[in-house]
C-alpha cells in the first residue's frame, strides 16, 4: 500500500468517525480569528459584495441557520473553537456590540486576501491589513476595560488563528482579466511578495500582544471544483499549475514559522498543512459539490442542497462541507500525522 493510499484511508476514517465535540473549560482565555470565507461567520453580511452566504441553503445544518458561514454547518475554526472548550462560537467583528470581546473576535471576511485589492472585483471585503486594524480597535477597547498591564497578560495567553491567502491566488493571481499580478510577478516572486506582506501583519499582531499563533497553509486550490471547471484541461482532476503556485507560498509560510520562532521573544508559531485533502475517488467536478451554484461558484439563494451532504467534500464550487471541516479541524487540533502540523499541533500549542 503506497503512502498516498494510506493518507486517503486516514481521511476516510476521520470523515466517517464521530462528529461531535465536547465543550468544557476553555484551554485558552480567548481566540482571535483572521481569514477569508473559510472562517467568515457574518462579517460580509452588510457589505456591498457578491461574496455573501447569509441565505439558504448555507447554514442548512447550522443550529442558527444561515449566518454568513460559507458552508452547510460549522467552519473548521468553529469546530476548533469547540475542541478548545468554548461553549459558544466566537462572534464576528460586525456583531461585537454588547458581546464580551475579551473572549475573542472573528475578523474573517469572504473573498478577502493578504493584498488589499484581492477579491474586490466581487465588491467590498475586509483585507488582512484591515482585519489587523479592527483588532487594534478591539485591543484599545480591552485596554480601556482592563488596563494596559492586564490586557497584555490576557492577550499573551490567547490563540491567534490565521487562515488567509487562498484568495490571493483564486481571486487575484489567476484572474488576469481583473488583476495585473500575474503579469507583474512570476509564481516564485508572488509567493515571496505575499509572504513579506503577511509577515508584517503577523508582526503587528505580535506587537499588540499576540504570542500563540496557528498559521494555516493554503489548500490544494487547483482541486477546487470551480478551478477544475474553469481552468482545467483534458478532463484533469486538478489544475496542477495553481496548486503548485500555492505550495510555493506554503513553503514561505513554513519558513516564516521557523524564523519568527527564533526572532520574536516569547512567541510560538505553528504551521498547519492544509494541502492534504485529495478527492481522487470523485470523477467529475459536479460530484464534488452539493448545491446548485451560480456563475461565481456560490450557491443560488434558497435553492435546495443535496441530501447526502456528508458524502460531498464541497458544499458550493469553492467551500468544503462541514464533514470536511470536521476532518481538517481535528487534524489541526490533534494531528494524526506528524507532517500535518509543524512543529506541533494546536492542542500542544495552547498548553505552552
UniProtKB/TrEMBL annotation:
<keyword id="KW-0732">Signal</keyword>
<dbReference type="GO" id="GO:0005576">
    <property type="term" value="C:extracellular region"/>
</dbReference>
<keyword id="KW-0378">Hydrolase</keyword>
<keyword id="KW-0964">Secreted</keyword>
<comment type="similarity">
    <text>Belongs to the 'GDSL' lipolytic enzyme family.</text>
</comment>
<dbReference type="GO" id="GO:0016788">
    <property type="term" value="F:hydrolase activity, acting on ester bonds"/>
</dbReference>
<dbReference type="InterPro" id="IPR035669">
    <property type="entry name" value="SGNH_plant_lipase-like"/>
</dbReference>
<dbReference type="InterPro" id="IPR051238">
    <property type="entry name" value="GDSL_esterase/lipase"/>
</dbReference>
<keyword id="KW-0442">Lipid degradation</keyword>
<dbReference type="Pfam" id="PF00657">
    <property type="entry name" value="Lipase_GDSL"/>
</dbReference>
<dbReference type="InterPro" id="IPR001087">
    <property type="entry name" value="GDSL"/>
</dbReference>
<dbReference type="GO" id="GO:0016042">
    <property type="term" value="P:lipid catabolic process"/>
</dbReference>
<dbReference type="InterPro" id="IPR036514">
    <property type="entry name" value="SGNH_hydro_sf"/>
</dbReference>
<protein>
    <submittedName>
        <fullName>GDSL esterase/lipase At4g18970-like</fullName>
    </submittedName>
</protein>
<feature type="signal peptide">
    <location>
        <begin position="1"/>
        <end position="24"/>
    </location>
</feature>
<keyword id="KW-0443">Lipid metabolism</keyword>
Amino acid at each position: 500500500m503506497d503512502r498516498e493510499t494510506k493518507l486517503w484511508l486516514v481521511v476516510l476514517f476521520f470523515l466517517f468517525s464521530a462528529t461531535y465535540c465536547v465543550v468544557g473549560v476553555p484551554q485558552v482565555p480567548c481566540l482571535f480569528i483572521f481569514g477569508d470565507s473559510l472562517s467568515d461567520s457574518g462579517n460580509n453580511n452588510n457589505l456591498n459584495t457578491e461574496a455573501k452566504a447569509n441565505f439558504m441553503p448555507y447554514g442548512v445544518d447550522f443550529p442558527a441557520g444561515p449566518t454568513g458561514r460559507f458552508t452547510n454547518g460549522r467552519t473548521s475554526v468553529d469546530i476548533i473553537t469547540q475542541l478548545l472548550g468554548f461553549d459558544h462560537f466566537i462572534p464576528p467583528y460586525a456583531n461585537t456590540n454588547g458581546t464580551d470581546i475579551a473572549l475573542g473576535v472573528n475578523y474573517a471576511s469572504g473573498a478577502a486576501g493578504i493584498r488589499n485589492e484581492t477579491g474586490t472585483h466581487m465588491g467590498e471585503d475586509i483585507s488582512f491589513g484591515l482585519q489587523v486594524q479592527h483588532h487594534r480597535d478591539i485591543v484599545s477597547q480591552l485596554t480601556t476595560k482592563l488596563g494596559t498591564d492586564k490586557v497584555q497578560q490576557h492577550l499573551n495567553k490567547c490563540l491567534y488563528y490565521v487562515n488567509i491567502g487562498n484568495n490571493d491566488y483564486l481571486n487575484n493571481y489567476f484572474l488576469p482579466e481583473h488583476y495585473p499580478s500575474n503579469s507583474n510577478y512570476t509564481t516564485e516572486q508572488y509567493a515571496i511578495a505575499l509572504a513579506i506582506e503577511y509577515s508584517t501583519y503577523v508582526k503587528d499582531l505580535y506587537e499588540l500582544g499576540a504570542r500563540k499563533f496557528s498559521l494555516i497553509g493554503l489548500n490544494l486550490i487547483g482541486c477546487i471544483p470551480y478551478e477544475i471547471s474553469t481552468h482545467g484541461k483534458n478532463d484533469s482532476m486538478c489544475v496542477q499549475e495553481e496548486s503548485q503556485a500555492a505550495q510555493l507560498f506554503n513553503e514561505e509560510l513554513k519558513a516564516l514559522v521557523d524564523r519568527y520562532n527564533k526572532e520574536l521573544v516569547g512567541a510560538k508559531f505553528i504551521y498547519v498543512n492544509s494541502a492534504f485533502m485529495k478527492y481522487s475517488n470523485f470523477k467529475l467536478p459536479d460530484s464534488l459539490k452539493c448545491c446548485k451554484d451560480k456563475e461565481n461558484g456560490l450557491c443560488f439563494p434558497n435553492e435546495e442542497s443535496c441530501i447526502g451532504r456528508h458524502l460531498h467534500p464541497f458544499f458550493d464550487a469553492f467551500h468544503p462541507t462541514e464533514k470536511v471541516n470536521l476532518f481538517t479541524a481535528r487534524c489541526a487540533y490533534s494531528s494524526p500525522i506528524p507532517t500535518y502540523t509543524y512543529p506541533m499541533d494546536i492542542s500542544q500549542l495552547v498548553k505552552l
